[in-house]
Specification:
The protein is mostly beta strands.
Length: 118
């Protein structure tokens, strides 16, 4: 079992930055991937960025060059961050952290609100 807790959301003006963090606890040695998703009002949940245990990263086209996913420990998937720069109003959403373990179980955090508005 894995528990995820997100933090770092808030309200910022366009062009500013925010850093989200996701702290995993429990059976973190079983985690192979950690991902950030987001869901805007009236829309489905979409993938923003992902990082594999080996360090490989992937990004949605809409955030490439602006967002960076990283982990604090090269040997364990215990804390994953999402650095979000040059934020746009269309980045406004609830951001969720997700972890996938070695038997494809998915675990989700409670979500954190990001609002980009002038």
């Amino acid at each position: 079992q894995v528990r995820l807790v997100e933090s770092g959301g808030g309200m910022v003006q366009p062009g500013r930055s925010l850093r989200l963090s996701c702290v995993a606890s429990g059976n973190i040695d079983s985690i192979l991937y950690m991902r950030w998703y987001r869901q805007a009002p009236g829309e489905g949940r979409g993938l923003v960025a992902a990082i594999a245990r080996g360090g490989q990263t992937t990004y949605a086209d809409s955030v490439k060059g602006r967002f960076t996913i990283s982990r604090n420990n090269a040997k364990a998937m215990n804390t994953v961050s999402l650095q979000m720069n040059n934020l746009r109003p269309e980045d406004t959403a609830v951001y969720y952290c997700e972890a996938e373990d070695h038997i494809t179980n998915d675990y989700w955090g409670q979500g954190t609100q990001v609002t980009v508005s002038s």
